[in-house]
Known about the structure:
Nucleotidyltransferase, domain 5, 366 residues, five-stranded mixed beta sheet, globular, 13 strands, alpha/beta
Amino acid sequence: MKAAFVLGGGGVAYHSQALGDLESAESESAFARALAHARTLTGAAPRAIVADAHPGYATSRLAARLARDEGLTMHTVWHHRAHLLALLGEHGRTGWAEPVLGLVWDGTGLGEDGSLWGGEFLLADGGTVTRVAHLAPVPVLFGDRMAREPRLALAAHGAHHAALAAEARRRFSDTEWARTATALVIGRALPTRWTSSMGRLFDAAAVLLGLGTHASYEGCAAMRLEALAQRGAALRTARARPALPLPPLDGEGRIDGGAVLLALLADLRDGIDAAAVAWRFHDVLARVAWRVAARAGVRTIGATGGCWQNALLVDRLLAHRDDDRRVLLHRELPPNDENIALGQFLAVALDASRGRPADAAPALTL
């Protein structure tokens, strides 16, 4: 959705401009023209090509075609690993000497277990990236439609909590709910059609707080929630209450996002102003991050993925750090998918050179 490419090798990575959402033939064609132009300008002669591990992306299809037509070696990199490596690369930590807990929070990306990830806690340590915690998955309802219909995210969290299902039911007509309930039943039976998306947790919270049931683009509901919460910052003192309870974290690293939504619902029923509740939602997520870091024995956190375009979320993460803890944020690239290509390049470079990216073969990443 935020397409870009990288031409890299010999210690240099040329990053393209943002090329938009490749949802049409016209935009795919514009991407291909920009790529061809950059190759002409730089004289790049890549020997390898890299793409996201999701085979359905336009960039993945283009990479496969170029690999076939030009005899290039093709590699794929998992979406969220690429996010984290892009951040580490910006900070010169591709050969990191200390562990970093990556908070890779976004709307969606194909995960290594075949499901859709998005609320990930990835530990970069000793040259490896390991998933140590994640949001408890919920069913994906009606595919990509879920990202533009936030009420579906609330319904999906109702798969684990009856009270949330009841709240979601109020946002549907009888006919709509019958279809949604059927999709929930089908979704429960398809493990690969589940998602741990942080973006969908934001969507569900926005619906609970009365910010609409539909959105014109992915991330719209989360932006409404952030705007509401920014007003809530002034209300938190007047509406002083104990902090929201941290959600359960089980032995397999699953974090129950539904428990956070239930806490928001309790606040609303107690008469707490919706803006203050929205602020408390952002705050508890930051506290969860540091809890997982403490459990992993890590003092440095890296924040990447589209959810970190949220300034209040960044603010709360920084507010809860101790003096001896560090937070790595993007400085040159945005946290969203525009940084994926750089992370893909670094992933293959590291694999090829065992921590010496400058020795990697010239590569093209999409």
